Amino acid sequence: MIIREIKAKSVLSKSQVYDYALNPYVGCTHACAYCYARFMKRFTGHKEIWGEFLDVKVNAPELLKEEIRRK
Question: pTM for the whole thing?
Fold first, then answer.
């Protein structure tokens, strides 16, 4: 398992279920066979298999506060 701390540009994204979804990390530690997010790997730049990496957005609290303020 590869776990990295990263500085992100955003933590909120539009959702088809709710107005927004909160994404405090990229990747997964479970690799569930039924996961709807497995396709996201192609956008991450990771060469690892889905379920073998997790990028933690260490600046998520500050980003969330600012994004809520703007929206």
Answer: 0.81
